[in-house]
Write a structure and sequence with these properties.
683 residues; mainly beta; Jelly Rolls; S-adenosyl-L-methionine-dependent methyltransferases; 7-stranded antiparallel β-sheet; 6-stranded antiparallel β-sheet; 0% helix; 50% strand
């Protein structure tokens, strides 16, 4: 079979699979086509009861319309080429070998000037070009293509004529009677399925082997990595041996590779379509990495060497572990891994020497071994000495202390000093009366053991509290230092205890500014520590009045008296709280306006000023005084400064008479009260 491979996407997973032939088309009326006019039936066809040939049909999903004498040609506005098709089908017992196509066709003056003939295998997507036919005039013309195409049993193809070269959208093309197909039908053959076994692992640079199993003598067609020439895939073929096996070998795989297994056949007309894909991704080759094993001492228990390398490669070591001699071990990676050769590791075994240290001393004498002083015989004590190669040498003590005669031992204890035989002792000691025995050892007949207990130690204890500290049943309200003494069973000082007592003081204070706020007047609350220590505010209550709960200053206004509370904690952890009573003065907007004043400098009624019950918490929107001519003689935004009877123009005293005022006062609730009237200036 001659194939030009267009497209396939079925992916073969990494396990064995059987692939069977595709299912052919089963109807003579196919989706996407409509019946044609009864023109151009085949005049000659290969004989065979298992063959089916359809009439010509045109593709209906386009802008081409039927014509009384054939099929419309190309739409000149850029639409795709139109085509007409005929259907050829084989049954399960018959194959067809086509050797010639002969087309009788005619075109109109503006119809297609050429056509391309294809064989399309719907089951596999394979499309083969038979040839190109040219219509040089509008007369009947015969175009013949010699070919050698094979349609296997149980398969189907579409004979497609693609039209081109028309000069008008209404141009027509017609297949006429006399069109023929030459070929021969054959009995069906039996092609067994192909078992495909991809390699489990392929290492970088190694060969990949895909194992195939089928009937002996089966040809398997495949393509590697989309290799092509002149727009066609390059296909290779392997043939199974007498045992029914074959391999596809991909040499020196250094990157991802795709092998497409297309078909299998025993002869050109005996085939199955496979169209499967094997994806090969080579693994990088790694070197097993191990951490060097530290030396062992001879005879020490050795751990098994790791069976998995630091970079995840498994394997085994040889020879067997030897804990008595330095040995080089070889690591062999397990099969199926991408790993380099063998790695070695030498484990060093260091010698561990041993010895005995023998000594003999008299009774009462001492012997120091390994930093320990011995006064009695000892045959088991050991000392470890650092030897060459890091292994320790073990030395065993063989100490003999000679026996002593019966002696009299007297124990004398005192706290700080002791007087014995008119001599004062302040340190522990032992007194002997000495007799010499055989071997040069002393024979002791009297021993006085004096022990002075003067090793009392000082212990300091820190304790603290808030406002007061209780210690030994005593309450301390100021920081101080207390000491006491503990005695041992002999009544001697044993421990001097010093208690460092710290009393932390924390007392929250508050200020309210102003101290007597009016209803609705904004005021400030600030808290501090009476003892000027560092502290933090934990919370204010009621919480809904204080969005910032940890502030040491708060600003708010109120419409009714209430009790506020703040909680704090010093840096030493002492907690305190304080209740803040907020008492509000009534907010009265009452204003009394004088009707006369005497600016004569006597200190009484010298200034015209409105009389408010409020001391603050209001604003002056306007304070103006006019003469009887409507001229402004006084204007200010400071209500409390009043008018002293002088002119705002030159500052000179004005004449006695009646004047007019206009005053506007803005209160906290947002209201503005306006006052207008007469004021009499008297001199």
């Amino acid at each position: 079979m001659k194939y030009i491979l267009l497209f396939f996407s079925l992916f073969l997973m990494g396990f064995s699979t059987f692939i069977y032939a595709q299912t052919p088309l089963s109807a003579t009326t196919w989706s996407g086509y409509v019946d044609a006019s009864p023109h151009g039936n085949f005049a000659s066809l290969p004989a065979g009861t298992g063959l089916t040939f359809s009439q010509w049909r045109r593709y209906s999903n386009s802008t081409y319309q039927s014509a009384s004498d054939g099929y419309n040609s190309q739409n000149l506005n850029g639409n795709p080429l139109g085509y007409i098709s005929s259907y050829i089908k084989t049954d399960a017992t018959t194959s067809l070998n086509i050797t010639q196509f002969s087309f009788v066709a005619r075109r109109s003056n503006t119809g297609p000037t050429y056509f391309k003939a294809y064989l399309l295998f719907p089951a596999t997507g394979v499309n083969s070009l038979i040839g190109t036919g040219y219509l040089n005039s509008t007369n009947n013309e015969t175009i013949t293509f010699q070919t050698d195409f094979c349609i296997p049993a149980n398969d189907s193809v579409v004979l497609r004529l693609v039209l081109g070269g028309a000069t008008h959208a209404g141009g027509t093309f017609r297949v006429l009677n006399g069109t023929s197909i030459l070929g021969s039908s054959k009995s069906s053959c039996s092609v067994q399925s192909v078992l495909i076994n991809p390699p489990a692992t392929v290492c970088m640079g190694d060969d990949a082997v895909i194992a195939l199993t089928s009937a002996p003598g089966t040809s398997v067609v495949y393509n590697v990595n989309n290799q092509s020439a002149l727009g066609q895939l390059l296909l290779d073929t392997v043939v199974t041996n007498g045992s029914g096996t074959a391999t596809i070998n991909i040499n020196n795989v250094t990157g991802d590779s795709t092998v497409r297994i297309i078909s299998a056949f025993t002869n050109p007309c005996c085939a199955i379509n496979i169209m499967q894909e094997v994806f090969i991704s080579p693994q990088p080759i790694a070197t097993p990495l191990f951490t060097q094993i530290a030396p062992y001492c001879s005879g020490a228990t050795m751990m098994a060497l790791p069976s998995t390398s630091n970079n995840g490669i498994t394997g085994s070591w040889s020879p067997a572990i030897n804990n008595t001699a330095t040995t080089t071990y070889t690591f062999t990676p397990a099969a199926g891994q991408c790993a380099l050769g063998t790695q070695t590791m030498t484990v060093h075994i260091n010698p561990a020497p041993a010895g005995i240290q023998t000594a003999t001393v008299c009774y009462g004498q001492s012997y120091t071994f390994n930093g320990i002083t011995y006064t009695a015989s000892n045959y088991t004590a050991t000392d470890t000495l650092a030897g060459s190669g890091g292994c320790d040498s073990i030395v065993t003590l063989n100490l003999t202390v000679r026996n002593a005669p019966q002696i009299s031992i007297t124990h004398l204890d005192s706290c700080k000093q002791l007087t014995y035989n008119n001599r004062v002792y302040t340190q522990s000691t032992t007194l002997y009366d000495t007799l010499y025995a055989v071997g040069g050892c002393d024979s002791l007949y009297k021993e006085i053991r004096i022990t002075i207990h003067n090793n009392a130690r000082l212990v300091q204890i820190d304790t603290s509290g808030c406002d007061a500290v209780w210690l030994n049943g005593i309450r301390y309200t100021t920081s101080t230092v207390e000491t006491d003494t503990l005695y041992n069973t002999l009544g001697c000082d044993s421990v001097y205890r010093q208690f460092n007592i710290t009393v932390n003081r924390f007392n929250l204070l508050y200020t309210v500014d102003p101290e007597d706020p009016y209803e609705m007047e904004r005021f400030n609350i600030a808290v501090s520590d009476e003892f000027d220590g560092n502290f933090e505010v934990l919370s204010w209550h009621p919480a809904n009045l204080f969005p910032v709960q940890t502030a040491k200053q708060q600003y708010l206004s109120a419409t009714q008296p209430q009790n506020l509370k703040v909680f704090g904690r010093s840096i030493e952890g002492c907690a305190d709280s304080v209740m803040i009573p907020i008492k509000l003065k009534a907010y009265s907007k009452e204003v009394m306006m004088p009707n006369a004043f005497t600016p004569n400098g006597d200190g009484r009624n010298d200034v015209f000023v409105p009389k408010l019950k409020l001391e603050r918490a209001y604003n002056t929107a306007e304070f103006r005084v006019y003469n009887r001519y409507g001229q402004i003689v006084h204007s200010t935004a400071n209500l409390n400064s009043g008018w002293d009877g002088t002119s705002v123009i030159n500052g000179k005293p004005l004449d006695q008479g009646v004047y007019f005022y206009s005053i506007s006062i803005l209160f906290l609730d947002g209201t503005v009260n306006n006052f207008k009237g007469e004021i009499t200036l008297l001199r």
